[in-house]
Amino acid sequence: MKIFYSSDDTFEANFNELLERGKMDIEGVTSIVSGLLKEIQTEGNKAVKAQIAKFDRWEPQSDDALLVSTEDMAKAYDNIDPTLRDALHLAYDRIESYHQKLMPKTWMDKEANGTILGQKVTAVDRAGLYIPGGKAAYPSSLLMNVIPAQVAGVEEIVVCTPAPDNELNELLLAACHLCKVTKVFRVGGASAIGAMAYGTETIPKVDVITGPGNIFVATAKKLVYGEVNIDMIAGPSEIGILADETAREDYIAIDLLSQAEHDEMASSILITTDEELANRVSDKVEEFLGTLSREEIARKSIEERGAIIVTKDMDEAIALMNEIAPEHLEVITKDPMSLLDSIKHAGAIFLGENTPEPIGDYVAGPNHTLPTGGTAKFYSPLSVENFLKKSSIISMSKKGMEEIGEQCALIANTEGLTAHEESVRIRLRD
User: Fold this and answer.
1) Minimal CA–CA distance to 210: which of 173, 159, 168, 138?
2) Quick one: CA torsion of 364, 370, 374, 378, rounded to 10 degrees?
3) CA within 13 Å, CB half, 304
4) 356, 348 contact by CB (below 8 A)
5) DSSP code of residue 294
6) What per-residue confidence (pLDDT) applies to 334?
7) What is the CB-side half-sphere exposure of residue 357 using CA atoms within 13 A?
8) Crossing angle of helices 139-152 and 170-178, rounded to 10°
9) Which architecture, in CATH terms, is 26-230?
10) Fewest CB atoms within 10 Å of the CB: 217, 254, 339, 370?
């Protein structure tokens, strides 16, 4: 792996290049995606089926062919290995428990004059979840999207997943059955986003769309935002690791590779205060690469988007990592908890050598749908909040109106809104 030193004259330029890691050429595909969305908006299922034939290499013979049967889901659930089934149940229970703790509450507060102020929390009526699919399906992504929607109280959940060659991953179908999802459609890419955003004869229009995808999915989500709400614009996966001289090079090396094997665009960045550790990690990464089933993908990721940075101290290391704002941040130091207050920007923070990133991907409980490409500076992980909306509650008492109504009328008058002013004054005169 490339090793950079923060003291080098060229470091700023090299670091700025790392900060550009998550950039996607959305503009380059916008015209294509816009055209696909327009077709679906105007032609509904006809356009969806035509796009499936074009991109997924099969032709739905009817509208009904888009829907995955609950029988197929149940069959898949029964077919999977019982040990794996138990693992999925464990993940489900832990994810549900964690997200239950995130639920905001409706609240009301009564002032001394009798005025009531508060906030009402309500789930959206319908949520659309995009789950990457095909032969490389991720059932964990289904759990991470469905469960917070269910905990939030969403009444209708719509799932779209691609089915190349009309094939669906059995494990994904099993996870659908486990989650008791009944509306699962064989539609992927921008087509799925358009179908859920605008609605078709078969696929219901939703209120919010969540879930990761490729650049076409990300672009489609950006374009339909406003028609529906979305969770975030997610790019390639990434990991950042903060480490000191106490860290084990084998742990760090394999954790860096756990992201690199996702795809060639993934980023793996170690920042350490120890030069010797940096060299040992670099050697160990090379050693482990040869053992991976996805060696070619991981190697390209490491060579093109991987980096090790050696800093003068941990304060500088943390400052640089805050600038990177990684999707996943591991802290492998003598006392990781002591650094938590200084860490400002990360999608998920993994503290200690026994907390590898994959534990968060699957069974820890927190959501693995996380902001990428530095967007952790202003985005949060997917949660129940993405499936909720809030309404303000105001109930003014007569006394309350008498206490603050005059000030309200004055502000309205100053803005030249005379009906606003009179709406208040008519009550003050009674």
Assistant:
1) 159
2) -110
3) 15
4) no
5) T
6) 98
7) 30
8) 20
9) 3-Layer(aba) Sandwich (3.40)
10) 254
Residue 327 is among the residues annotated as catalytic for this protein: yes
Q: Measuring CA to CA, which residue among 426, 204, 237 is closest to residue 326?
A: 237
331: helix, strand or coil: strand
Q: Which of 99, 177, 262, 328 is catalytic?
A: 328
The one catalytic residue among 238, 249, 261, 327: 327
CB atoms within 10 A of CB 309: 24
| Distance, CA of 100 to CA of 381 (rounded, Å) | 15
Question: 3-23+235-364, what's its fold?
Answer: Rossmann fold (3.40.50)
Token pair belonging to 355: 């907390």
- Angle at which helix 398-414 crosses helix 418-428, to 10 degrees, equals 150
Angle at CA of residue 274, ends 352 and 272, nearest 5°: 55
What is the spatial distance between Cα 73 and Cα 172, in angstroms, rounded to a whole number?
9
pTM of the model: 0.94
**Taking a C-beta distance cutoff of 8 angstroms, is the pair 48, 40 a contact?**
yes
Question: pLDDT digit of tens for each residue in the chain (430 aa)?
Answer: 999 999 999 999 999 998 988 777 788 999 999 999 999 999 999 999 999 999 999 999 999 999 999 999 999 999 999 999 999 999 999 999 999 999 999 999 999 999 999 999 999 999 999 999 755 668 999 999 999 999 999 999 999 999 999 999 999 999 999 999 999 999 999 999 999 999 999 999 999 999 999 999 999 999 999 999 999 998 899 999 999 999 999 999 999 999 999 989 999 999 999 999 999 999 999 999 999 999 999 999 999 999 999 999 999 999 999 999 999 999 999 999 999 999 999 999 999 999 999 999 999 999 999 999 999 999 999 999 999 999 999 999 999 999 999 999 999 999 999 999 999 999 999 8
Q: Which amino acid belongs to residue 195?
A: A
286: nearest Cα among 277, 274, 298: 298
Question: Would you kindly state where each structural domain of the chain is located, as residue ranges?
Answer: 3-23+235-364, 26-230, 398-428
Separation between Cα atoms, residue 192 and residue 203, nearest integer Å? 9
Closest CA to 270 of 316, 309, 321, 317: 309
Give the 3-state secondary structure of residue 373. coil
Residue 282 token pair = 């670099």
Q: Distance between CA atoms of 412 and 95, rounded to whole angstroms? A: 48
To the query of whether residue 328 is one of the catalytic residues in this protein, the response is: yes
> Residue 183 has what DSSP assignment?
E
